[in-house]
Amino acid sequence: MTIKKPNLPADDIKIIMRPRDGFCTATHRATRIGDSIRNAARLTQEETRGDIFRVNGRQNIIVVSTPSEERARRYCEICKLRMGDKEYEASAYTAAPENTTKGIIRGIPDEDSPDNIERHLVNEHNPTLLHAKRMGKTANAIVVFEGSVVPHYIYYNGTQHRCVIYKKQYETCYTCGRLGHRSDVCPNPQSKRCRGCGCDDPAEDHQCEPRCRLCGKDHPTGYRKCHAKYRTPYIVKKPLWERRREEEETAKDQRHNEEGGNDFSVLEGERPTGNGDKDGLPKAFKVSWAQKAASGAHARFGTAAPNSEG
């Protein structure tokens, strides 16, 4: 059973650190990694007493949580980490804060700098937009909105752009072929694995029948058109959960009604017997025309009418 780690302080600033050059977080003690980050940020243990350093071995990254904007700025400036006598390249950036939602826009000019992208998006035309940055070397940009609503359209330098919800991906390493981390933070760059069939150290002329480990279809794991590699965002999951719960409640009520779930139904022993009316009272005794004729004849001759019961 996997034990869930406690949540980091909600009001803290979160910094994501991605070490490179084969740095493996699983082979270093967490305390040594924390000391290396402090030294790179030129901070002492006393100054970072309120900070938390959490190692994510699966993604091979480090998450730093701090309440200080000044220390967060220093952490984001880290570009190298030293472990013993070896130095590793690293990158760091601030994660999106709590109660925010991400979107994607396309068509960002290649020549626009990070400062220009931020200035063209974070302005009065997009009041809920908090931050924006380019996705690698592509023409796409990730935009962060306050709250749980992603607008259908936003404005970039005064021009209207379509905005869609950002979907996180199941990370696939194109270096070692394994799931869980990206190629730029691969802890085992010398280890090779075929993304098609999963065999270790494939030959250069290796041929196989690919089978995706995410969806089971006949394409390599992490194929860009594989729908299973994208995770459904929470803002999409939540209304689906609520709708499913409402449908289950409605179906439950319908089954209850179909099974005669009336709490005020009359017990079998209390039902009126015989030919009673709707109020449970006996109906008037019906007399046939022959009995009426016989009764009239007896009245004329002064004799008693025969008993109808026999």
Automatic annotation (TrEMBL):
Pfam families: zf-CCHC. Residues 245-284 are annotated as: Disordered. The keyword Zinc applies. Keywords: Metal-binding, Zinc, Zinc-finger. Residues 173-188 form the CCHC-type domain. SMART domains: ZnF_C2HC (SM00343). GO terms for molecular function: nucleic acid binding; zinc ion binding. InterPro entries: Znf_CCHC, Znf_CCHC_sf. Residues 245-259, 268-281 have a biased composition (Basic and acidic residues). This is CCHC-type domain-containing protein.
